[in-house]
UniProtKB/TrEMBL annotation:
Signal peptide: none
Gene3D superfamilies: 3.30.70.270, PAS domain
Name the record gives this protein: Sensor domain-containing diguanylate cyclase
The protein's Enzyme Commission number: 2.7.7.65
UniProt cross-references to InterPro entries, sorted A to Z: DGC-Regulatory_Protein, GGDEF_dom, Nucleotide_cyclase, PAS, PAS-like_dom_sf, Rev_trsase/Diguanyl_cyclase
Amino acid sequence: MGNHLFKNYYKSIFDHSLDAILLTSPDGRIHRANQAACDMFQRTEEEICTLGREGIVDVDDPKLNEALKIREQMGQARTELSFRRKDGSKFIGDITSSIIKRNHQLWTVIIIRDITYFKETEFALRKAQKESQFLSNHDYLTGLLDRRGFVEKLENEIQLISENNSTMCLIFIDLDNFKRINDKNGHIIGDNVLKKLSKAIIKNVRPYDVVGRYGGDEFIICCPETEIKEAINIAERIRVDIECLEVIHGAKTIKTTASIGIAKYDASFKDDVDAFIKIADDNMYQAKTKRNYVYVVK
């Protein structure tokens, strides 16, 4: 290929590339910008050349200095950087930058591809995956762990108790007369009661306690490193808060109470998880004989 044709060939690539191409100096001066670069940065070639690297690159991007060091050492670099358009908006660009030597002078060729769409798609996918994972073991209504998710956490805590010879308490909560609330006011109001109840529980537990919706109007709390006396204090705070809850429905104010059972687990307990939960559940049914009550066999 003749020299003239060779120059025309690369000029055609420069002019018609869908990716932005910049001819620059290693110090950040820009000498040429193709039409794709002008479109990308919303500027004329003259404006881009006048601004230089600091006028189009987000200089606060920590990857910039790292990429410049790699390019200086290796002669080329590829990374993702944040760039600025004329209107002030930013976008993520996938760039390749290479140092070339022509006529005893160093130049750099930079190719930029706007990957904002791909980054947004990637973020949306990761968010959807995270939400899907969350929903796989959490209750959609209250945001608490569902029965399966709670039991898995409880099994982990029991394993730790066995290894550390420590104790744990389980608090089992059941609303009093919840079916009557649903039947008289409808499931939407019933759902509002459950959501308020879950917030009351969360407000009264410690950061390391594990809370789950066991089913329907049944809630369950795993309290690691906890003796009976402390578990009773937690349960009583929850009981009082539930008694004070109000859900307004038209001219009516809906109130409810809860019956709560407590069970203790330590390293001497030889039965399985289901048996442990059943003890707390049985104690809750003992509390039901009085309603709005906390029951435990001390």
